[in-house]
């Protein structure tokens, strides 16, 4: 009976922690103050089946990378309170993730986090957190047909992700700091 009581007490203690650790993407997926994108595994399977030129090594490497991704989720918001909530969630999640890199510029910050994979070149999750974009982007941008001054962007990629391939892709897309992803601390 004593063991059962201890287990119940531990469960009650951990309940608020698991509630706080609710996935931020699930929390805001239906919120009208965010732009939410979630690409499911079936979509990645379909993309991988698209006919590509098998002679093009770059295209093949891209398709191999796409096959390795099981989930892509992103939230974009200009809402200050949601931005603060996302920042708190990222901070609380950082104990299960390893920070790879942080870039601070003109009041904004970009952080790259990973969850270890099968070896040092692979990760199970890549989390990119960009906060304070409104300080860099002086102009508003069009998101969902509306002009917005973006505050925060968070992106999560899960799967068997090769950091070297991601760094090549982010470099081609001119994502700040992307070329350094393959170089873990």
UniProtKB/TrEMBL annotation:
This is DUF4252 domain-containing protein. Pfam families: DUF4252 (PF14060). Residues 1-21 form the signal peptide. InterPro entries: DUF4252. It comes from Mariniflexile ostreae. The lineage of its organism: Bacteria, Pseudomonadati, Bacteroidota, Flavobacteriia, Flavobacteriales. Keywords: Signal.
